[in-house]
Amino acid sequence: MVGATTPSLWSIPAHRGFADALVAGLLPRYGGDALGLARLTLLLPSQRAIRSVTEAFVRALGEQDAVGGLLLPRMVVLGDLDLDEALGALLDPLDGPDVPPAADPTARWLRLAALIRQIEGDEAPKGAALLRRAWEAGQTMDRLAVEGIAPETLLSDEIVALVGEQAGHWQDSTRGFLKLMAHWRAELEAQGCVDPPTRRNLLFAHAARAWKAAPPKNPILAAGVTSASPALADLLRVVSELPEGGVVLPDLDLTLDDAVWDELGQAGHPDEPGGAPFGRSDAATHPQYHLKLLLNRMGVARGEVQLWQRSGPASAPPERARAISNLFLPPQASARWVDLPEKQRRLANVRLMESGHPGEEAQAIALLMREALEKPEKRVALVTPDRALAGRVVAHLARWGIGADDSGGQPLSQTLAGRFLLLLAEVAGEQATPVPLIALLGHPLVKAGEPRPRWLESVRALDLLLRGPRPDAGLEPIAGVIDKKASPRRKPGLIAWWREAEAMLSPLMAAAREEALPLSTLLDALVTCGEALCGQGLWGETDGRALASFVEGLRNASDGADLPIPPRDLPAVLRDAMDRISVRPAWGGHPRVAIYGLLEARMGRADLVICGGLTEGVWPGSPKPDPLLPPAVLRQLGVPGADFRIGLAAHDLAACLGAPEVVLSWARRDEGAPVIPSRFVLRVTAMLGEKLARDHRETRIPAWAGGLDVGRKVPPHPRPQPMPSKDQRRVDIAVTALDRLRADPYQFYAQAILGLRSIDALDAQPSPAWRGTAVHDILDAWHKAGAVPGTLAATAGVVLDSMQAHPLERSLWRPRLVAALEWIDSEVSALVAEGRRVIATEIKGEMKVDGIRIHGRADRIDRNPDGSLAVVDYKTGAPPSGKQVQAGFALQLGLIGMIAGDGGFVGAEGEATRFEYWSMTRRRKGEPGFGWRDEPILEKPKRSGIPREDFLPETEKFLREAIARWLLGSEPFTARLNPDIAGYNDYDQLMRLDEWLGLLGDEDDQA
């Protein structure tokens, strides 16, 4: 070993595989006797790194000839808040009075929100926005603490002067942040706590002092650490100087020219004393930049770092390391690409794979992984920061029975248990609107087990009843919907079921009616309701346990926060918090398949590594500047800028490129628009040049992926012409369905013979049919109340307030409706004065023609002064034109007149002579106001319609012709028989309209 005062540092190149190469060197260095490795303490950057090194030890043992056991070294995570306990007696007593406990991060988040509201008063953001602001403030505090920057530094003359030069919003933001930090520090001092990064820094400093004063007897080695925080850099310097200590860095490029190394910039080492640690021209996006920053803060020159002489079993060719180094040259040095010989530009066994869209990319990646598993013992890994892409790949692999675990995890908010809690919060916050309510009641965790089938039957029945515009807020109106809409057979059981569900939801809904409540109270209500619906199964699986931990931590943290939350903001608050928690699967996937996020992939290794999602904004992610402190201030303080994370992403890619086989994958577009390939991909193609880039293209797998789900070519679907049997044809005709039968027989067939009905969406926007129903209900109620002049508008208010529609919709439509109703009010009064009177509204009637029942409902029937009848049809839109009626495609008025003449309307019998449409649209010919009436009668000056004396006979002729052709005859129910007639489109998808409409040929086919 090197002397105690000389730092011992090594670097493992990317092409050697860090974890395997590390273990390959540790075994001969420390494994001379049975307890040699057990005496070693390995300081590693993360729990995932511990797992990777452990797996590497297992692989190394499997390759040795001798069979035996092995005592692994003690592996400790640097940065663990309980580092003192993890190291144990090695640094006893580490947890002395100078290392206070860390404040709970969740409690800090909530308390910062309360402090922001206290400081800013009415100007503070509300609800979820306030908590987002508090989270951002906490992140900024942590960034400063990690860099060892004391709050007093922000008040130095230099920083104050720099803030004064910034834009006004930056000045306000900085002042607000300083006030908040002062309040929070005062509370920390009162509690005897520190922020978590501060505690880590104190632990690092204490360990550094202790080990420097009394070096441990057993060896300590730090491996894989890339964080460049000053306190950690000081500790690593001490570790590197221990008698049997050392630091092993991942992929420090020792072959990089000194000129290129200098071109990376200052990297925390200012050119002059007191200067800014980071220069404006620093190449922060370079993958070696953060390692240069670490070495500078350790006070170690790159020349003092040695090459780790061992390689892992899955190492790539050595020339790959040189190509990777050339790939990431900074701007000036990259000009040498034009002079590089081909062998120094070639990335052997690296393929470039471009797909059309994310779905195709996932399919292609899954095929690559499936193909790799055909070779025994070959390991394959997908590395991507895109969790959606990872989820797609997992699903595709499942089709071949390959279980792949995404160790990058998924946000708690997207897990089964997390989504259930969010649905509970949405039901509470939105007062049981249909969409979240039905989603909650049908959630897979609700009533799991034996009771679930019966429960789901009721949920589906309620789903159908709630279709259409939403009912009034709360649980109470839902019982009214069931009572009004449910069939007599289903109603008793459905009401009993709803009472059971309502009893479970009521405590939560009662709490949600409060203006604001403590977060702990709201969480208690959510938990109580959740356990009533799901039982203890809510907490049973991995995501349930993560949810339980989250809820418990949030509940405990909220007790002292003094932060009431409006229930309507609860879903957004919980979603923001749950998005920050990653739930990782338990062990159990395929042993040779791994799916990693960027953090999880560090130190991992596979024979084939697929880097997926290589597009700008994904890998690398879009840089996010600090929202509270200006970039110039952070740069002067020595805090790495937003571009620093791009350099980390580049280093992650460089490590992946060291695998034996690598595929770089990206898609040309995302879910919504074209995207730009990652800057790293563009660098690869630029360095390779046109010819080499073409040679590196992977075209075989994308072609397979594109054709994997493509079926054989089939001819277009023919125009539907169903031919039901004689008995099936004999169905009733509604007065509104004759138009459909004559214009589009297939639609009539689907509705009347097949019995299919279109279903509205949940919480749907009010449709024209809804508006028509509202108008009919209003006018019916007004007429039945005596049609007192001047009271129609008041009746409309009562009816609208009781109908299913969003209050905003009612408010927007009401003024226009009231204007039209006022016209109807005055028009009816005028007709009554002339001797015409209303004798029936919303009356049902029927008759038989050629043995076929004709039935319908009349909006209104009046008795004329001469004793004849006037048939009135209300329209919220434009009525049919005279040409449509003349052609026989708007016959509702005539059919109602025929039923009245046949005595089918009880109390409204007689001969109809007037056939009126009362439209509530804006008046024609530029006249102001709403409401007008018209008859489709051919009288001067009209040029279309049916003469009055022929109106009923013509209607009867069209009716009997239709009955003879389709209901009593054998004519097929041809789809879109008259395609030029505007009509319904409820069944266009069923008839597969798009497949054959454009293929209609000659006029005979269209006839």
Shape type: elongated
* Sheet with most strands: 6 strands, parallel
Percent of residues in helices: 40-55%
Distance between the termini: 97 Å
- Which structural class do the helices and strands define? alpha/beta
Question: Helix tally?
Answer: 40
> What is the strand tally?
21
- Name the poorly predicted regions: 1002-1007
Task: Write out key terms for the chains shown.
1007 residues, alpha/beta, six-stranded parallel β-sheet, six-stranded mixed β-sheet, 40 helices, 46% helix, elongated, disordered C terminus
What's the structural blueprint in terms of helices and strands?
Elements: E1 9-12, H1 18-30, H2 36-39, E2 41-44, H3 47-63, E3 74-77, H4 83-87, H5 105-120, H6 127-146, H7 157-164, H8 168-191, H9 196-213, E4 220-223, H10 230-241, E5 246-250, H11 258-263, H12 289-298, E6 305-307, H13 319-327, H14 342-345, E7 350-355, H15 358-372, E8 380-383, H16 387-398, E9 410-411, H17 416-429, H18 434-441, H19 452-465, H20 476-485, H21 491-512, E10 517-518, H22 519-534, H23 542-558, E11 564-565, H24 570-579, E12 582-583, E13 593-596, H25 598-601, E14 608-611, H26 631-637, H27 644-656, E15 661-667, H28 679-695, H29 700-708, H30 726-729, E16 733-734, H31 738-743, H32 745-753, H33 768-784, H34 792-802, H35 807-833, E17 837-849, E18 852-863, E19 869-875, H36 882-886, H37 892-901, E20 912-922, E21 930-934, H38 951-967, H39 993-996, H40 1003-1006
Parallel strand pairs: 1-5, 1-6, 2-3, 2-4, 4-5, 7-15, 8-13, 8-14, 14-15, 16-18, 19-20
Antiparallel strand pairs: 9-12, 10-11, 17-18, 18-19, 20-21
Helix pairs in contact: 1-3, 5-6, 5-8, 5-23, 6-9, 6-24, 9-10, 10-12, 15-16, 15-29, 17-18, 17-22, 17-24, 19-21, 21-22, 22-23, 33-34, 34-35, 37-38
